[in-house]
Design a protein that fits this description.
The complex is a heterodimer. By secondary structure, chain A is of the alpha/beta class. Helices cover 28% and strands 19% of the residues of chain A. Chain A has a domain at 15-222 and 311-336: 3-Layer(aba) Sandwich (Rossmann fold), CATH 3.40.50. Chain A has twelve helices and 14 strands. In chain A, helix 1 (37-47) packs across helix 6 (190-202), helix 3 (108-114) packs across helix 4 (116-125) and helix 5 runs antiparallel to helix 10. The model of chain A has no long low-confidence stretch (mean pLDDT 96). By secondary structure, chain B is an alpha/beta fold. Chain B has three domains: 4-221, 3-Layer(aba) Sandwich (Pyruvate-ferredoxin Oxidoreductase, domain 3); 234-419, 3-Layer(aba) Sandwich (Rossmann fold); 502-607, Rossmann fold (3-Layer(aba) Sandwich). In chain B, helix 10 links the parallel strand 10 and strand 11. At the A-B interface, strand 1, strand 2, helix 2, helix 4 and helix 11 of A face helix 1, strand 9, helix 9, strand 10 and helix 11 of B. Bound molecules: iron/sulfur cluster (SF4).
Chain lengths: 344, 609
């Protein structure tokens, strides 16, 4: 639009020289001791230096809630915005600056209650950003009210007789909103979480990761069944693209489809491995179906539900801007002169 | 037959019809042609909220008024001299405004029993005597249009739709206008050759009807106004705002970003800017008003000249976002094209009742600069000024326009971009001693873009420590920061030019206005001054902060009068700030001020001395 180039250009930090420490700020971390957020922060800080992106090109954007303090602890650029609106702020950043790696940190209240609208729209637009939802099934910062992911009957400060509204499943919701990358992991599964984060980072488009996170103050033990050494092999199923869906201590159980596409748990040995449901992360239907495997009837799936490639919003925007450049009339004066006449 | 030509100096015409009758097109074509003819002019489009209200109903009446003259024109005129009514509903809604003895042109075909009933007439107005005292001309506009396009074999509906061009042609003849501008426009506008030809024929048929029919014994001529030599064009407010933002982007070198959600009467700015991707403009139609401002905040953080545009209800939704932008201290322009409220109010009608919302509509001590545009052409300069202050002071600025300014048009001297001062942008890149909330001479903080090595920092809505920007709950720091944020707004006043006074620089009465009432106040003040009264007029562009000299200026007059299209909002701010006994002249009818109303209010003040 102008001959003036006022945007500075830089010699960027060599990403190869970056270590985890480069991503740690001098701020005291203020989550409650024992909070699941600590582990997530540690895994994110471990993954950052492996992505080949200079530190100054990361932006962390959050809304409001315990999880939303996250940006203060990342030695990157960051905005701690307002409740539920981080996806909108991040969309503006990415639309303006596709060169940046933008990460949205949100929680179950932030993303699904007050920010439900933005959550849906950022996913359908496929803005190239990473969206990490820390799901602790409770409001922590406001001191313990039930959230949109709390199970029915949750007794919390605002629901002394138990909650009477049904929860929403973020993974199914994301798939319904046409997300191109949808995954789930757990705060304490360090290795799994890192792998999922890495895949999310590599995805071009909105990468949504739900992370089950223990709030040891207001909802302690919400995910115990999924993390407990004794039970987890029966309650969690790790899904992987192209692999039959198996779980149990010795992977002796499997998921198969019965009549009416109803999933069922089968004994692998007697049913036959070749008849098990094979996870296909490129199939929307498979992703949705797997996302409906929910406790208490089924093990909870973790891993990548869905990953497909589709042009991202910012990419399409840049393409339009490039295409428009070929048009004439690129000076404002040309537009001002439209329809003018001269008075002598 | 040779007809007489009578020269007159000023005429106001109102075109009125069903919202599907194309009256806005007729009006704007007449406007452009009249501008080209060298007259000064002002327009007032007044349309219903319904896209298509039931045909022939009072709710569906759409009007367009234009005043044009060989003299200076400040308003679209109080009472039209000519009313073109395409149906009985249009007559019923508008007749009360027509000047006694005014010209009344009716589309006689539409004056039938069915339409009388739709318009709520129990008796034909043609027979009940209500049209006595006007010069009545009945012309079968529909019938003659059908005839003119007969050969083209259009279906009836499409043929009838050409009738607005017949009416336009007739009025072109009546006021001695050239048709070529509209001929060219039709040729470009209508892609389908048959429709194009039909509209052209209707236009010409209307013109020739005026010329040859015995209905009119004369037509009128309005000599060109004495206008300073230069290049001119017609411009409407929303268009001028859009161009102003494009200009600010060019003058600053910044890329323009608009995050917006459709809302009447602001959507045109989104439509207009969306057309200019070739100038690097990014427009984002957000999922709601909140996402619109939040995306703009993200873009501003990333180095854009960021805007969000809305109307009153949307401004309410943006409240929290504005508070965030204020805390983040990012440049951002928030445009509120005001409409009649509260709540949904009257979306297509004008009002100035969002001033208090703009001033105070946020939680906490959250002052923001507020600037208002006074006329369509002024929107251009107001947009640039808002951007300049936002960038220089690293602050969100609220720009108030309104439905009247947004949609009305006036001839406008085309600005020369090379004569407009550039807007200086300083991105911070220096790592040494970098502090996100350090202050420059304007109390602005550094604009450090993500991607700048070594300047990684976090900002947010939580109260922050002076200079470092770290989270702070310190009591004294909070009070300091609240005062600092107020002072940041005040700082703008230091760079404002001396306030311009129209009329007398001292005297009996000072009229203070803002926004769209400029034309009516200006004309009203000139009128009473011609009668010998000593009256001055100050039209505020900045309402927050007030200009530094406003207090002294008020002292030079015995009284102060503040006309506003609300129940008295600016007047409260003035009284509170200056402890002067400023009087309010409120109007809240969804309509702009009339010149006569201002004159009466001024006279009342002068007489009550
Ligand atoms: S309240 Fe819960 S979620 Fe919040 S910091 Fe404490 S433990 Fe974590």
């Amino acid at each position: 639009m102008t001959s003036l180039n006022i945007y500075p250009e830089f010699k960027h930090t060599d990403p190869a020289t970056q270590t985890r420490k480069d991503f740690v700020t001098d701020q005291d971390v203020r989550w409650c001791p024992g909070c699941g957020d600590y582990s997530i922060l540690a895994q994110v800080q471990r993954v950052m230096p492996t992505l080949g992106i200079p530190r100054e090109n990361y932006v962390f954007v959050s809304g409001i809630g315990c999880s939303s303090r996250f940006p203060y602890y990342m030695e990157t650029y960051g905005i701690h915005s307002i409740h539920g609106r981080a996806p909108a702020v991040a969309t503006g950043i990415k639309a303006m600056r596709p060169d940046l790696s933008v990460w949205v940190i949100t929680g179950d209240g932030d993303a699904l209650s007050i920010g439900g609208n933005h959550f849906m729209h950022v996913l359908r637009r496929n803005v190239d950003l990473k969206l990490l939802l820390f799901n602790n099934q409770i409001y922590g910062l406001t001191k313990g009210q039930y959230s949109p992911t709390s199970p029915v009957g949750t007794k919390a400060k605002s629901t002394p007789m138990g909650s009477i509204d049904y929860p929403i499943d973020p993974v199914s919701l994301a798939l319904g909103a046409n997300a191109t990358f949808v995954a789930r992991s757990l705060d304490v599964h360090a290795g799994h979480l890192q792998r999922v984060l890495k895949r999310a980072a590599d995805h071009k488009g909105t990468a949504f990761v739900e992370i089950y996170q223990n709030c040891n103050i207001f909802n302690d033990g919400a995910f115990d069944a999924l993390t407990d050494k004794e039970t987890k092999s029966d309650t969690v199923i790790e899904i992987e693209h192209g692999k039959p869906m198996r779980f149990g201590k010795n992977l002796e159980k499997g998921i198969a489809l019965g009549e009416g596409m109803r999933p069922k748990i089968v004994d692998v040995a007697s049913y036959g491995e070749d008849k098990l449901l094979v996870h296909d992360e490129q199939s929307e239907v498979c992703g949705l179906l797997v996302s409906r495997l929910q406790a208490p009837h089924f093990p909870t799936p973790i891993g990548v539900f869905h990953a497909v490639s589709r042009p991202s919003y910012d990419q399409l925007l840049v393409e339009q801007l490039d295409r428009a450049k070929t048009q004439k009339r690129t000076r404002v004066q040309d537009l001002l002169n439209d329809g003018q006449w001269t008075v002598k | 037959m040779h007809k007489a030509v009578e020269t007159v100096s000023t005429v106001a015409i109102r075109f009125a019809g069903d919202s599907g009758d194309g009256m806005q097109v007729t009006g704007s074509q007449f406007t452009d042609t009249t501008g080209l003819a060298g007259n000064d002019l002002a327009t007032f489009p007044d349309f219903p909220a319904e896209i298509r209200a039931p045909a022939g109903s009072l709710a569906g009446v759409s009007g367009f008024q234009i005043k044009f003259s060989s003299e200076a024109v400040f308003t679209p005129g109080d009472a039209p001299d000519v009313l073109v009514a395409m149906n009985p509903a249009a007559l019923k809604v508008n007749l009360k405004d027509l000047k006694p003895g005014g010209l009344l042109i009716l589309n006689s075909e539409a004056f039938n029993a069915k339409n009388f009933e739709r318009a709520g007439y129990t008796k034909s107005p043609l027979e009940d005597g209500s049209l006595k005292g006007f010069k009545l001309f009945q012309a079968d506009i529909t019938g003659m249009t059908l005839k003119a396009v007969e050969e083209l074999k259009l279906n009836n509906r499409a043929a009838v739709r050409c009738k607005n061009f017949f009416a336009l042609g007739l009025v072109y003849w009546l006021y001695n206008r050239e048709m070529h501008y509209t001929v060219t426009w039709i040729a470009e506008k209508f892609k389908d050759p048959t429709t194009r030809e039909a509209n052209l024929r209707a236009l010409k048929a209307g013109y020739h009807f005026g010329e040859t029919a015995e209905l009119f014994d004369r037509n009128y001529e309005i000599k060109p106004a004495k206008i300073e030599p230069g290049n001119y064009r017609n411009i409407a407010g929303n268009e001028a705002l859009s161009l102003g933002f494009l200009a600010a982007a060019e003058l600053s070198g910044l890329s323009l970003f608009l995050g917006s959600y459709p809302i009447t009467p602001a959507s045109d700015i989104l439509h207009e800017l969306a057309r200019y991707k070739n100038l690097g403009v990014r427009t984002f139609q957000a999922e709601d008003e909140i996402a619109a401002i939040c995306s703009a905040i993200g873009a501003a953080y990333s180095g854009a000249l960021a805007l969000t545009t809305t109307s009153g209800p949307g401004l309410a939704l943006k409240g929290e976002g504005m508070g965030l932008a204020l805390m983040l201290e990012l440049p951002l322009v928030i445009v509120d094209v005001q409409r009649a409220g509260p709540s949904t109010g009257m979306p297509t009608k004008t009002e100035q009742a969002d001033l208090m919302q703009a001033m105070y509509g946020r939680n906490g001590e959250a002052p923001l600069p507020v600037i208002a545009a006074k006329s369509p052409g002024d929107c251009f300069y107001t947009a640039i000024e808002a951007c300049r202050m936002a960038i220089t002071h690293m602050i969100p600025v609220i720009l108030l326009s309104d439905g009247f300014v947004a949609n009305s048009a006036e001839p406008w001297r085309v600005p020369d971009m090379s004569k407009l001062p550039p807007i200086k942008v300083r991105f911070h890149t220096e790592q040494k001693d970098f502090a996100p909330y350090a202050r420059d001479e304007h109390l602005a903080r550094p604009w450090a873009l993500p991607g700048t090595p070594g300047l990684e920092h976090r900002i947010g809505g939580i109260e922050k420590q002076h200079l470092t920007g770290n989270i702070s709950y310190d009591a004294a720091n909070h009070e300091f920061m609240c005062k600092l944020r107020a002072e940041r707004v005040q700082k703008i006043a230091d760079s404002l030019p001396p306030t311009e006074i129209n009329g007398d620089a001292s005297g009996e009465l000072l009229v203070i206005g803002w926004g769209d009432s400029y034309g009516a106040i200006r004309a009203g003040v000139e009128n009473v001054r011609a009668g010998g009264a000593k009256v001055g007029h100050v039209h505020l562009r900045w309402i927050n902060p007030f200009p530094n000299d406003l207090g002294d200026i008020m002292k030079r007059y015995k009284r102060v009068l503040v006309p506003e299209l609300n129940l008295g909002q600016l007047v409260k701010l003035i009284r509170a700030r200056y402890l002067v006994d400023a009087r309010s002249f409120p109007k809240i009818q969804g309509q702009p001020f009339k010149e006569q109303e201002i004159i009466a209010a001024i006279k009342q003040q002068l007489e009550s001395n």
